[in-house]
């Protein structure tokens, strides 16, 4: 079993029970206790749990969960459209983009349809299907394992394919953004793809409507200083800032 698969199972069990023991997980995952202790260390460094004698407990940070993808499509529609429009305006012709799977990145991709001479690399099945008919854009769908709840590909194959490219921008939609912890996601497999896209890009564009700002979820994507552009809506605190990047506030009319 790959480390990211173990981490996901550990977090799922921890979310369910509030605590886990080293011996219990070693037996469940059929690995050594030392392997589980290394997993605990990795997950603690990411802020996802707190190690205790014989096991681990939930981090004392307030964790923001993520609603189902179908439910997210129906919420904050006006803000997502405005954010997508503003973000698309930052992308110059001739650019290559990584785009991860999310409802706000889907709104961004809809705005990109009006552009020309762009190459899009995405794990989102919906984005790939939407962009494919447009001759002015080139799109590549990353291989991998389709997810049951989110229409996208994930896993080791997806990560290895991301590693083959260098993009001008990674356009990412996290579950939350916090001024000290940075961008976070609820699902480990989603965070891993987003993180790899950022590593393989020259610049990072983060799309977050106001409800995500100042919040935390359970898996780290990147630190605040790794973000070049944070695109949010004008309901966000105007004092929101990045250590080295630029914050953009998109005006919108509420459609929710």
UniProtKB/TrEMBL annotation:
Keywords of this entry: DNA-binding, Repressor, Transcription, Transcription regulation
Annotated source species: Pseudotabrizicola algicola
A GO MF label: DNA-binding transcription factor activity
Organism phylogeny: Bacteria, Pseudomonadati, Pseudomonadota, Alphaproteobacteria, Rhodobacterales
Protein name: DeoR/GlpR transcriptional regulator
PROSITE patterns xrefs: HTH_DEOR_1, HTH_DEOR_2
PANTHER family assigned: GLYCEROL-3-PHOSPHATE REGULON REPRESSOR (PTHR30363:SF4), HTH-TYPE TRANSCRIPTIONAL REGULATOR SRLR-RELATED (PTHR30363)
Gene3D superfamilies: 4-hydroxybutyrate coenzyme like domains, Winged helix-like DNA-binding domain superfamily/Winged helix DNA-binding domain
Domain of life assignment: Bacteria
SMART domains: DeoRC, HTH_DEOR
Pfam families (alphabetical): DeoRC, HTH_DeoR
Residues of the HTH deoR-type domain: 3-58
InterPro entries registered for this protein in UniProt: Carb_Metab_HTH_regulators, DeoR-like_C, DeoR_HTH, NagB/RpiA_transferase-like, Tscrpt_reg_HTH_DeoR_CS, WH-like_DNA-bd_sf, WH_DNA-bd_sf
